[in-house]
Fold:
Amino acid sequence: MNQWTHLFILKIAYQKGVFQKNTLLEAIKASEKEKVTLLNYLIKRFPSFKEVSQAIQEEASKHPSWPSHPQQILKENQRIYLDLKEIKSIPNLEKEFHTAQKLVALGKAVWLHHFIAEKQVISLPELEIMLSIEREGKIYCPQCGYSLTILEYCPWRLYPCLFCSHSLEIKKENPLEKYETRYSSPTEVSSKGEKKQNFHRFQIQKVLGRGGMGTVYLVYDPEIQKDVALKVLNPSVLNPRTHKRFLREIEIVQSLNHPHIISLLDVGQWKGYLFYTMEYVPGGDLRKWIKENGPVTEANALRWGIQISQAIGHAHDKGIIHRDIKPENILLDSFQKPYIMDFGLAKVLNSSE
Structure:
C-alpha cells in the first residue's frame, strides 16, 4: 500500500471523526521525525486503528476514485503512456501499454512505468526523471498550509489534503534561489568573498547566462577537480515538451565529437532539477569579444569562419542542424579558439522535431 492510498484512508478517517486535527498534526511531525509513514505511525500509536483503516480501505476500494481501483489505474496508465510518448521514444511502448492495461482489466494492479522497468526496457530512475516523479518530496496544501513528506510524488495524481477540499502540491526548495537572490553579478561574489553555494556536488561561483529554458553557472566540480559550466533546467518551464527538448539537447551534444564544439561532461538530476555539465570556456562569447575589441579582423574572420564551418559540417554529417548560430553561441577561449554551444533549437534530420 503506497502513501497515496494512505492519504485517502486518513482523509476518510478524519471526515468520520476518528482523529482530531491536532492529533493528526502532531502525528505528522512525529512520523517525519521517526521517518515512517503517517498511517504506520498512527497504527503503531493507536493499534486499534489498524482494523479501522482496513475497514475504510475495504469500503472505499469499491469506488472508482480509489487509488488502486482498476478504473483509476487504467486512467493513470493512460496519462503515463501519453507523457512517455511525448517525451521519448521507448521501444514497444504502445505494445507494453496495451499489455499493462489488459492485466489491469484482469484485476492486477499494474502501473505502466513499473511494468516497463520490470521488462528492463528502460530503468526506473530514468523513467522517474522523464515523468518528473519526486522522491521524498515535500507536499503541502496551498489553502490551509499543512504539509508532509511523501516518499514518491507522481505529478499526475491528486493527493487529498486531510483537512480541506484542496489537493496537495509539491513544494520545491530551489537550491539556487538563495544564490541568485544574493549574488546578482559575478563581481559581487568575488569582491565580497562570500561563501559559495552548492548545487549537488558542484560549488557555484557565478552565473554565466540565463535563457528561457534554464540558467548556466560557472561551478567547480570536485570529482574532476576543475571548473565546468553547469546548465540547470528551469523548473518553472518543466513540462513534457521542455523536458523532451532538454533531453534531446543532451543526446545531440553527446553524439558530437569535434574540437570546436563544446563537450558534454555529465548529466543528472538533483532534487528534481535536471542538469548537465560541459567544459568551461573562460573567454566569453563572440558578441562580448566584439563589444570589447571592436570589429573582427579579416584574419580572425577567416580563421574562425573555417573552424566554425568545420564544426557545423561535423554536425551536418551527423544529421544535426544547429539552427541558432550567432555570436552569443560562439565561445572563445583564452587562445581565441572558437567553440559552438547551445544546441537547444537544433533539429535532427529524419526527426519530427
About this structure: The two ends are 40 Å apart (CA to CA). The longest helix spans residues 298-317.
